[in-house]
Each structure stands twice: as C-alpha cells, then as structure tokens.
C-alpha cells in the first residue's frame, strides 16, 4: 500500500506534482523495469533523499500516481437521459485514451499492473472509483423508467468503456468519435433489452 500522503500546498505539493509527472513520463518511455527512484528524482529535479523518504519505492510512486488520477478525474455528466449520459461517458473515455499522453500512460500502467501487485491494486481502485462516479446515470435511468428494474449500474458503465480500451490495447489505435458513439449506442440498446439485469432480479421477476 502506498504511504499516506498529505495534500498541502506550497513546496510539498510542487514536489509531488513534479515526481508524479516524471513517473508517468518515465513509465511511458522505459516501462516498469526501467524505473528507479534516483531516475525519477533526476527527472523531477528534486533531491533523491526527498523521493526516498516520501515514497520509498517505485510501486509506491505509481500507486500515488493512480491516486492523483482519481483525484483529478472529471465528474460525471447529467444530461437527463440514458443515451446522453452514456454518450458523455464514452466521449470522456475516448478523449482520455486518444490523448497523446494519457493514452500511452494508461497503456503503460496496465502493462505495469501485470508485473506488480500494488500497481494492479491501485489501477483496479481507479477503475472502481470512476465506475462508481458514473453509476448514477444508470440508477437515474431505472428511476425514469428507461431501463428495467434490477439493471446492474457498474456492468452498464463498464460496457461503455470496454470496446474503447480493447481497441487501444489490442490494436494500438486510438478510438475516435464514431467508436464512442457506437459503444454508447450498443450499451444503451443492450441495457434496454435487459442484458444487464442481475440474476437475482431475473429470478424474482
């Protein structure tokens, strides 16, 4: 587990920002095996002692990097309709994956997670947190009668982003606007058809 980090302003915040930015850049360029704290300190322009004392290990830096991603992520949209909300979610994922830095960074984190349990745990936390932020778009749609009762919110949200991540990670191509529209429309149609209704809800219906 990453050490508990204070979030004050001033020099402490600047050091954290510089080291996390350096960690992201180095992870993209070198991969997990090429990272060490001395290199991160050099890239960030801070003392090695500061980095060793504050984080203590490369995995701890990466866990803090993911924590920062959670803290700075955009809020969910509330368009008033299922189709609008899912499209907004798909567009946010698309723009993130298509970003010249964020796309490669997420790809590098997925690769790092395969070799480090701490990074994997932190990355799962990131996706769980982002999914939870968008779940109300599904519960609101159920309340409005747009979706059947028992629809699993997390499953719907994950279904929107899954094809966009799949395209980036398996084909190496950044998703475009048409891909985002397709992912949102397909997920909305499947949700309306009851594909994401929980097994328990099916048994009691």
TrEMBL record:
Q: Name one GO molecular function term.
A: transcription cis-regulatory region binding
Any Pfam family matching the protein? TetR_C_11
Any idea which residues the entry calls the DNA-binding region?
A: 36-55
Cited InterPro entries? Homeodomain-like_sf, HTH-type_TetR-like_transc_reg, HTH_TetR, Tet_transcr_reg_TetR-rel_C_sf, TetR_C
Annotated HTH tetR-type domain ranges read 13-73
Q: Do you know which PROSITE patterns this protein is assigned to? A: HTH_TETR_2
Report which superkingdom the organism of origin falls in.
Answer: Bacteria
Keywords assigned by UniProt, alphabetized: DNA-binding, Transcription, Transcription regulation
UniProt-recorded name of the protein: AcrR family transcriptional regulator
């Amino acid at each position: 587990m990453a050490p508990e980090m204070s979030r004050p302003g001033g020099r402490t915040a600047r050091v954290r920002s510089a080291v996390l930015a350096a960690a992201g850049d180095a992870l993209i360029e070198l991969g997990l095996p090429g990272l060490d704290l001395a290199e991160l300190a050099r890239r960030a322009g801070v003392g090695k002692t500061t980095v060793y004392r504050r984080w203590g290990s490369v995995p701890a830096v990466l866990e803090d990097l993911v924590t920062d991603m959670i803290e700075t992520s955009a809020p969910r949209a509330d368009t008033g309709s299922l189709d609008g909300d899912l499209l907004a979610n798909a567009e946010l994922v698309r723009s993130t994956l298509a970003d010249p830095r964020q796309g490669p960074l997420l790809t590098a984190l997925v690769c790092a997670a395969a070799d480090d349990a701490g990074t994997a745990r932190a990355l799962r936390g990131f996706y769980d947190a982002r999914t939870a932020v968008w779940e109300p778009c599904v519960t609101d749609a159920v309340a409005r009668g747009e979706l059947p009762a028992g629809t699993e919110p997390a499953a719907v949200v994950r279904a929107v982003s899954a094809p966009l991540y799949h395209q980036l990670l398996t084909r190496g191509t950044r998703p475009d606007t048409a891909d985002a529209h397709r992912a949102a429309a397909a997920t909305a149609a499947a949700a309306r058809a009851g594909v994401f209704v929980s097994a328990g809800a099916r048994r009691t219906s």
